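Before a colleague's protein record goes any further, I have to sign it off. What it holds is a sequence and that sequence's fold in token form. Would you go through it and say whether the fold makes sense for this chain? The record follows directly below this note.
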Amino acid sequence: MIKNDMCPKEDAARLCVEALGVIPPIGLITIFFLYFYELAVSDWEGQLMKVMQRQGEKK
């Protein structure tokens, strides 16, 4: 489990790329980082997919 104080923006970017297998859309890294700032999350891929779905619904 990754604690929020151990997850700088660079780590959030790396996790996005690992989970997606591609470079994420502009803004997704910041959204991902801010969304999980207060959480300690172990299922990063699942949580990232939920965030992406919500972002897709907003468009």
Summary: Helices lie at 9-20, 28-35, 44-58. The chain has one domain: 4-58. The chain has a mean pLDDT of 65. Residues 44-58 form the longest helix (15 residues).
